[in-house]
Amino acid sequence: MSDDRTKPEIDAPEGPAPTELLSRDIIFGDGDEAKPGDTVTVHYLGVEYETGEEFDSSWNRGESIQFPLRGLIQGWQEGIPGMRVGGRRELVIPPALAYGPPGGHFLGGKTLIFVIDLIDVA
């Protein structure tokens, strides 16, 4: 898959933030499947659940990013495996699987929504 897909838009969620990881495939890929421990190349957009405010986007930097899954927040470690290259998945990640309770990280205590395009796995 090339990384020329356009930046997604995230609709404002309704209702209370979930307490468990939610995963929803927006586009099903047909390439290699990501497995736990793989290194993934992705484009992603992240917003806060409560406010809908964007806090990070690889699209804004104009390039995809590559990282080992085991180095990422738990919600990504659990939510990306099973995706196939070419896919786009939305993850809604509660604080316990993101940056923990308020106080440490600026996103601590927040439920996060990510839309992730899987470009490559290694």
UniProtKB/TrEMBL annotation:
Molecular functions (GO terms): isomerase activity
EC assignment: 5.2.1.8
Residue ranges annotated for the PPIase FKBP-type domain, each copy included: 37-122
Classification via InterPro entries: PPIase_dom_sf, PPIase_FKBP_dom
Pfam families per the UniProt record, alphabetical: FKBP_C
Keyword Isomerase: yes
Enzyme class: isomerase
Composition bias type Basic and acidic residues, residue spans: 1-10
Alphabetical UniProt keywords: Isomerase, Rotamase
Catalytically driven reaction(s): [protein]-peptidylproline (omega=180) = [protein]-peptidylproline (omega=0)
TM helices/strands, residue ranges: none
Positions of region (Disordered): 1-21
Domain of life of the native organism: Bacteria
Similarity annotation: Belongs to the FKBP-type PPIase family.
PANTHER family reported in the protein's UniProt record: 39 KDA FK506-BINDING NUCLEAR PROTEIN, FKBP-TYPE PEPTIDYL-PROLYL CIS-TRANS ISOMERASE FKPA
Protein known as: Peptidyl-prolyl cis-trans isomerase
